[in-house]
Amino acid sequence: MAKEYIRPMGAGWWLRRPTYVYFMLRELTCVAVGGYTLFLLLLVSSARSEDAFAALIDRLSSPTSVVLHLIALALCLFHTLTWFNVMPQAIVLYRGEDKIGAPAIVTAAWIAWVAVTGALTWIVLG
Hints:
Blueprint: H1 18-46, H2 50-60, H3 63-90, E1 94-95, E2 98-99, H4 102-125
Helix pairs in contact: 1-3, 3-4
């Protein structure tokens, strides 16, 4: 029986092409967004009284916290942008017999994102 050939691949295989680097950055932002979400949920759940909530707000208004939140926002926006741009490769939609083009899928995703963000902003701040 012949031995199966397995091509050797180093740990930095994804550094050889810009598209691979872009893909890995998108995947890493997914981990960062998930971790930030869990962190924020734990923080909010720890504030069970008004005093604890006031202390939480004080901690979140520190310069370090503001910088970390801005970094998290940048990672979330990068993840959103890259996901919407890759969405037509992951989703194939048809209208009757005609395939819906990539620009229409991306535009619909952006419109839905803006609408949901606007509605949530209105609910929270309204």
